[in-house]
Amino acid sequence: MLRHLEVGRVMPGAPERAWRLLTDTRTWPDWGPTIRGVEVAEPRIGPDTTGRVRTLAGVALPFRVTDFAEGVRWRWRVAGVPATGHRVEAHPEGCRVVFEVPVLAAAYTVVCRVALHRIEQWLADGA
């Protein structure tokens, strides 16, 4: 049974840099088109991190990291609902960043493509 769709892109830069970007909540509004802010105890997420994410509409929703493998993958639930997974893989050209989108949220793949473009720009700029 297909549980999620994958949207990914190969981009320049070390996998460690992409991982830092994906796990630093201070950068989420920079690359996440639907995120305007994050409230957490520590800016870098880890296993079992909880907090609130402020959406484009201004609504703050609770979240919890449900799966975390350092340097590889993290998944979360937002308002109790499975949300996107985030994965970084080494690649000969740099790294591959992948979003795992629940099948029921297939339309969100468009948002993920925008996020991948923003992440790629960030990595290319050396920020």
Automatic annotation (TrEMBL):
It comes from the Bacteria. This is Polyketide cyclase / dehydrase and lipid transport. The lineage of its organism: Bacteria, Bacillati, Actinomycetota, Nitriliruptoria, Egicoccales.
